[in-house]
Amino acid sequence: GLDAAAMERLTEDLRRSGLGLSTRAALSRKVLVTADVSKSTDYVPFFEGSVSEIDVPILDGEKVLGVVTVEGYAPFDSQEEEFLTILAGHLASLWKSLELVAEVENLALTDQLTGLPNRRALFQKLDSEDNRLNRYGGKMSLVMMDMTGFKEINDSYGHLMGDAALQAASHCVRECLRESDFVARFGGDEFVVLMPETGAEEASAATRRISEKLADIRVSGIPLKLTAHFGLSRYPEDGKKLAAVLKKADDRMCEGKTRPGYN
């Protein structure tokens, strides 16, 4: 019955005051039935004319997920208390199910080695950015990045060192970007970077930062002298869909590999 602004204001008042019957129920982890709210110093009114209140904590073991709070115009009876207790139990189960679904979805979109978004997450991001750019306009720079030298690391130090090098490289790339930029592991030793509202000059500066930082990476004290090759493309100059822009970045990266002196 409260509008969003009133709910936000009252919630903040409760948080600051430390009062509230729901707070007491949460701290005690027990159902709290208040037959006459006018006699409670903890009662904070949400609705005019309320006589009673019942507060039922939503529990996951000892962890408090929330509190079901209901105000009434008459005292609550035992049947209503039982019903709300059962409801709180169902809410706890639903809450845990939603958390599990969210965890599974997150795992499906995360590269397990580097912790970066994976290829599937990248294409979801491309779709959402396509919708945003089509609706509001703007520009975007994309970088396809191919790390070099990993075969030598694996051959010289083993695959565990190669994995550690990829983890260090992914952390390095993330550190060189803005909060608004998006980086994903495309596969193997390839990464893709999306830089919203970024032109060619700014994107090139970012690739230079990445190259410089990669060269300084050490794993277990061993200087790996990592390098990378980049392909840069821009929206909308290189395509009206970001998948096409990404393909252009990939083509340019591959073209660079065929140039004399590329290793």
Structural account:
There is one protein chain. With 263 residues, the chain is α+β, with helices and mostly antiparallel strands. It has eight helices and nine strands. The chain starts with a helix and ends in a 6-residue tail after the last helix.
Total strand segments: 9
- Average pLDDT works out at 90
* Terminal-residue CA separation: 67 Å
Unreliable stretches, pLDDT < 50, 5 or more residues?
Answer: none
> Which strand order spans the largest sheet, edge to edge or round the barrel?
5-6-4-9
Helix content: 40-55%
Shape: elongated
Task: Enumerate how many helices there are, as a single number.
Answer: 8
Largest sheet: 4 strands, antiparallel
List the secondary-structure elements in sequence, H or E: HHEEEHHEHHEEHEEEH
Structure class: alpha+beta
Radius of gyration: 28 Å
Instruction: Tell me what portion of residues adopts beta-strand conformation.
Output: 15-25%
Question: What are the defining features of this structure?
Answer:
elongated, 22% strand, alpha+beta, three-stranded antiparallel β-sheet, 49% helix, 8 helices, 263 residues
Summarize the structure.
The protein is of the alpha+beta class and 263 residues long. 49% of the residues lie in helices and 22% in strands.
Topology:
Layout: H1 4-17, H2 21-28, E1 32-34, E2 52-60, E3 63-72, H3 78-108, H4 119-136, E4 140-148, H5 150-157, H6 159-175, E5 182-187, E6 190-196, H7 200-215, E7 218-219, E8 222-223, E9 227-235, H8 242-257
Antiparallel strand pairs: 1-2, 2-3, 4-6, 4-9, 5-6, 7-8
